[in-house]
Amino acid sequence: MAIKKRNRDDESKPNVGLVMTISLFLILLTFFILLNSIAVIDEQKKLLAIGSLLGAFGALPGGISPSKTGESIMSPFAPMTDERLDIVELLSRMDKMMVGQVRRESNRGREVITISESVLFGADKHQLKPSSFPLLNKICGIMRKGDYPVEIVGHTDSRPGEDKGFRSNWELSSLMAIQVLKYFVGKGRISAERFSAYGRGSTHPVASNDTRESRAQNRRVEVILDFNAPLYVKRIFKKRPAGTFTYKNFDFKVF
Questions:
Q1: What does the pLDDT look like over 220-239, one tens digit per residue?
Q2: Which of 20, 80, 89, 159 is least enclosed, having the fewest CB within 10 Å?
Q3: pLDDT tens digits, one per residue of 115-163
Q4: Closest CA to 85 of 114, 47, 115, 139
């Protein structure tokens, strides 16, 4: 009788392997149903996702579409705004002569457009080159779509300012930034109160100053679009521009 009781106990035990297999199957089925439910992405979201990838990696090599890699195109970062997509499109359509002379990078929610000095200025740093106007007009078009603050920062190489016909590199870099600012306000019709413009001289190089080519990389103007500025700051820029701006206790008149 004891033997029969033992057999009945064995038969009453559940098949652990079968239960685990069924549970795993149900989990996988739920997972695939979830994936299928979020797989339908409208065209705009797809463009935003691709833009986010471009923002994170700069470019996709060989024109590869992320939708063909077998991986999700949705970036773990927040989707890019329309202005960011406009910047990506702007750089992709630039004249071949400007490739490498205009760069873009994302930094803590801000978009930085770096323009080489040779694109903006000739020998006379007091005037912008007419050939730079189409590029500056495109950037104006991007800025008109928002009310975020914009910084314009001039940079030089390490050679003495006196060798370039200026009292210092601080003066030269500030003049470069001011010329770009005047164009954005005068030709672009953008509120002056959105801008701050200043020079950093040769204090923030992006390359060494040992060769002519590396010095050319350091001579640049950065246009920084602060998309993530607090809302209260953006509201200030909606007011009527005063026509002047103050930097380091100096008043500059925009004309």
A1: 999 999 887 655 444 444 44
A2: 20
A3: 999 999 988 778 999 999 999 998 999 899 888 899 999 999 999 999 9
A4: 47
Spatial separation of the C-alpha atoms in residues 114 and 103, rounded to whole Å: 5
Separation between Cα atoms, residue 60 and residue 75, nearest integer Å? 14
Secondary structure element (H or E) that encloses residue 93, with its range:
none
Domain 81-253: state its class. Answer: alpha beta
Inform me whether the pLDDT recorded for 175 exceeds 60: yes
Residue 162's alpha-carbon distances to 38, 151, 159, 165, 174, in angstroms, are 62, 27, 9, 5, 15
Provide the token pair at 55. Answer: 């923002």
Residue 43 pairs in a beta bridge with none
Provide the residue ranges of all domains of the chain, joining segments of one domain with +. 2-37, 81-253
- pTM for the complete prediction? 0.58
Q: At what angle do helices 82-92 and 43-57 cross, to 10 degrees?
A: 70
Give the pLDDT confidence of 32-89 residue by residue, as tens digits: 787 766 654 444 455 555 555 454 444 444 444 444 444 444 444 444 456 666 666 7
Pairing of strands 220-225, 195-199: unpaired
Instruction: Look over the chain and give the mean of its residue pLDDT values, rounded to a whole number.
Output: 75
Question: In angstroms, what is the C-alpha Rg of the chain?
Answer: 28
d(CA 87, CA 215): 26
State the Cα–Cα distance between residues 247 and 252, nearest whole angstrom. Answer: 8
